[in-house]
Write a structure and sequence with these properties.
Blueprint lengths: L1 H13 L1 H9 L3 H36 L2
Helix pairs in contact: 1-3, 2-3
């Protein structure tokens, strides 16, 4: 799951120029889709961070058993 989130974040952030063009396009649907994609980045980054912290905690707990 973490790898998939990292891949999605990488794909989105590497296409920021394309996303900006879509936001400026005349198509309302394209604007909405692009804005939704950009707005989800902070939530996905936070989820990734939280999952990494949980994975570390589980790993440390398993090591102490």
């Amino acid at each position: 799951m973490l790898a998939r989130l990292l891949d999605e974040l990488d794909a989105t952030t590497s296409n920021l120029g394309e996303i900006e063009k879509e936001i400026r396009s005349s198509s309302l649907e394209a604007r909405r889709a692009s804005l939704a994609q950009v707005m989800s980045l902070p939530m996905r980054a936070t989820a990734l961070r939280n999952l990494a912290i949980a994975l570390k905690a589980f790993s440390e707990a398993a090591g102490s058993i």
